[in-house]
Request: fold
Amino acid sequence: MKFRVLPFVWLTFSGGGVVAAVFLPVLVVLLAFALPLGWVDPSHAHLEGLVQSWFTRIALFALIVPMLVHAAHRFRYTVYDGLQVKHKVLVALACYGGAMVLAMAAFLVLTTV
Amino acid sequence: MSAPVTRVPSYQRRIGVFWWVHKRSYFLFVMRELSSIFVAWFVVYLLMFVAAVAGGQQRYDEFLDRATSPLLLVVNAVGLAFLVLHTVTWFALTPKAMVLRLGGRRVPGTAMLAAQYVALAVVSAFIYWLVVKA
Reply:
């Protein structure tokens, strides 16, 4: 049987879609609004303990990678079909390449901080 | 010898860049797809937050300060709107994309829809507790 990569891309796309739908809204409300605007005020020490735990870092990486694949896969078709940029290979390379660069950046941030 | 192949130019209708603005359903479709930009942006934002928190009290305070700039607030508010569109459309699509059977009977779409919103509420409450209360 020939190995095909596309089913795995679609699977990760779906997984990332679920993660973005279920986990991301509350994170955005907290990190982009509630904390900066002072609606809630957890101490820095508490947050530091949270991000320094390996459980948090592994969980974040496991959530981030499928979300990046999801975004790249979706954006690829948005650019190709939506914006009619008919350079199939170039668009795919830019999208998945961008996701890979961001995944590596995430790995670096989550392992070094 | 094989027969010579005549290439017949096929007719391809040209579609403009803004083919999706004239119909509501097309417009919503493209808006839904564009939510991907903001998913990527919020991943970056989340990483910047983690880096700032790990960088100590001062860097964290600077991060919060910058996050209250009008530009970032507007970008994040627009992004959140796109994210909500993603969540609502994604949940609505799930029962159509997959058939779930329990005890030989098909789980109705409305039950699957409700289960997803319950999952959203549970996960949101857990993360809120983790960040704010724990």
About this structure: Chain A has a mean pLDDT of 92. Chain A touches chain B through 53 residues (CB under 8 Å). DSSP finds five helices and no strands in chain A. The helical segments of chain A are 6-22, 24-34, 44-52, 54-82, 88-112.
